[in-house]
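Quick one: C-alpha cells for this chain, please?
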Amino acid sequence: RVAVEDGDCRQLLIVGTQSSGTTSTTHALRFALGLEVAHENSDASFSPCRDGTVSWVHGLRLLHGAAPPAESVRGLCSRAFTRVGFYRDTFRWPAECPEFPWRLGRWFAWDACLEAACERIVRANWGCARRELRADGAPPRGSCPTPFARTLLQVRHPLVTIASLSAKVCDDPLARPIEPEFATVVRALLPAGPWDGEAARTCLGFIGWYWLLYNEAMVGALDFEAAERTADRAAPTGVGGSADGDGGEYALSGWYRVEDTDACQIARLGGFVGERDGADG
C-alpha cells in the first residue's frame, strides 16, 4: 500500500468516551478484519492507521467553537498525558521537533518544541469538523489537518461505562481526588463543566458529568434525519448514521451501541463495505 501523509483522507474516525470499549473496537477492526486502524493515534508516518483511528481525544474535532479557550490549550499541552491517550503523536509527529527522544526509548519525552507544536495542533483540530461548512450543505473540505471520510460515535451503556472508568481513575468513587491526568485533560476539553462545583465533588460525579458533556457535544454534530433514514438497513437496533456518507452539514456521520454492533457492522457504517457487499454477506 502507498504511504499516507498527514493531509491525506482516511476512511474512518470513531470517537467515544474513555471506557466505552474503543480499545476492543480497535482490536476487532484490526485483527478480525485486517484494517489498519490505530487507537488514540492518527500519525500514519509511524503507526499503522492508514484506514482510520479510534479515539476519545479526537473528539475535540467535533467540539463547538472556532478556537479553543486559552486555558484548554495550556492544559492539554503542558505535558504528555500518557495514561489517558494524549501524547506527542496522538495527531501527528511534529516535523519541526527532533526525533531523538523516542529513538533513545524516551517515548513520552516532552520539551518546549513539543509544547509549541502541540498548541498549534490543538488549535488546528479544535472544532475543525464543524468549521467552514459549505453553503450547499456538503461536508467541508480542508477544514481538518487530517480528514476522515466518515466519523462515527461509539456509545456503551452509561452505567457500565461509568463503572469501568471509575475503576481506572478513582481511589474512592465517592471521594476526591480523581486521577490527575484524566481530570486535567477533561477540564481542558470540556471547560464549561461544573468541575469545581458540588455536582462534580466526588470522583463518580466528575465522571458522570464527563460522560454527559462529552456525548452531548458529539451528538450535537449528528445528522439525526440521516441516522433515522439508515437505522433499519445499516445494522441492529440502536445503530444510526448515514451509510451513504450523506451527512449534509453535520460533522458526525452516525452512531452505534457497541454492545449491539460487531466489527463487520461497524465496517459497513464506516464505509468499508457497501450495501450490496453487506447483503451478500
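Confidence is low (pLDDT under 50) at residues 230-249.
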